Amino acid sequence: MSTGRAIRTLGLVHLYRTEGYDVAALSGVDLVVGAGEVVGLLGPSGSGKSTLLALLGGLFRPSAGKIFVGDHELSALGPAALDAFLARETSLMLQGAQRNLVPYLSVRENVVFAQEAARRLGADVVGVGDTLALVGATGFADERPAHLSQGQLQRAALAVAMAPRPGVLLADEPTSALDRSARDQVLDAVLRVNAELGTTVVLVTHDPDVARRLPRTVTIRDGRIGGEGRSGEEYAVVTADGFVPLPAAVRESLPPGTLLHFEQDGGRWVVVPEVRGEEPGPG
Ligand SMILES: Nc1ncnc2c1ncn2[C@@H]1O[C@H](COP(=O)(O)OP(=O)(O)OP(=O)(O)O)[C@@H](O)[C@H]1O
């Protein structure tokens, strides 16, 4: 049985360097995901979700900041040690299930292929049949990707991701473009992986129905953490440098430049906007 690994990022910044200008995809993300937790990453298109997931999966290194998976800081590992660590501990399901599968191999052969690659890098892998059964892929294990539905492709990609029994599963929109029944089957499979193996899961989604089934969601906005949802309750999150992004509804009623008082009321903090006209005049 695999043991989920905790994830922690500190001041994560990522710039894409393109010809002529740089794009700041992440501008300081401090995120803690507990071992064995399931977290959904939400946010508008272009807010930085895929970039965050790719950095957690070691696809590329951050421009600044640190990433810890379990006790290891990824940027402190050299290339060979990083490859071996990621092969054992972290699986990244890329957006678009087919990108995770070898097209001329059956689902079973894809899982065997992934296991062999992981074993060469030191992973302790278990039987293929168990992995296929875990994600509900036994019934189409001998089919090639071209013969599978979109939902089956996602479960096949999940089987490949789980082949090395990683401590962390990262999934980029595994339920997008699926009908409701296929979406529920994929989400059920991901949640079963978490429940049975204790794998830590971070999953990007745009789907409010998927988000509602997750115990915790983190919203990325403009490359930062813009808020969190816990069992349906929405929260603002204080960043490591003391900033609090205002929820969208609050922002609409507080234009830029609004002055705020923070007043203590028993055990609570109350935020009181300065009423216009009460500012002290000159002299
Ligand atoms: N390879 C790249 N080169 C240059 N800019 C990029 C690259 N990849 C992403 N970006 C930019 O970085 C920002 C964050 O992109 P990212 O794909 O992480 O967002 P996202 O929240 O996952 O979006 P979506 O929901 O549309 O997938 C965007 O402004 C995007 O245009």
UniProtKB/TrEMBL annotation:
<dbReference type="GO" id="GO:0016887">
    <property type="term" value="F:ATP hydrolysis activity"/>
</dbReference>
<dbReference type="InterPro" id="IPR027417">
    <property type="entry name" value="P-loop_NTPase"/>
</dbReference>
<dbReference type="Pfam" id="PF00005">
    <property type="entry name" value="ABC_tran"/>
</dbReference>
<keyword id="KW-0547">Nucleotide-binding</keyword>
<dbReference type="GO" id="GO:0005524">
    <property type="term" value="F:ATP binding"/>
</dbReference>
<dbReference type="GO" id="GO:0005886">
    <property type="term" value="C:plasma membrane"/>
</dbReference>
<protein>
    <submittedName>
        <fullName>ABC-type lipoprotein export system ATPase subunit</fullName>
    </submittedName>
</protein>
<dbReference type="InterPro" id="IPR017871">
    <property type="entry name" value="ABC_transporter-like_CS"/>
</dbReference>
<feature type="domain" description="ABC transporter">
    <location>
        <begin position="10"/>
        <end position="247"/>
    </location>
</feature>
<keyword id="KW-0067">ATP-binding</keyword>
<keyword id="KW-0449">Lipoprotein</keyword>
<dbReference type="InterPro" id="IPR003593">
    <property type="entry name" value="AAA+_ATPase"/>
</dbReference>
<dbReference type="InterPro" id="IPR015854">
    <property type="entry name" value="ABC_transpr_LolD-like"/>
</dbReference>
<dbReference type="InterPro" id="IPR003439">
    <property type="entry name" value="ABC_transporter-like_ATP-bd"/>
</dbReference>
<dbReference type="GO" id="GO:0022857">
    <property type="term" value="F:transmembrane transporter activity"/>
</dbReference>
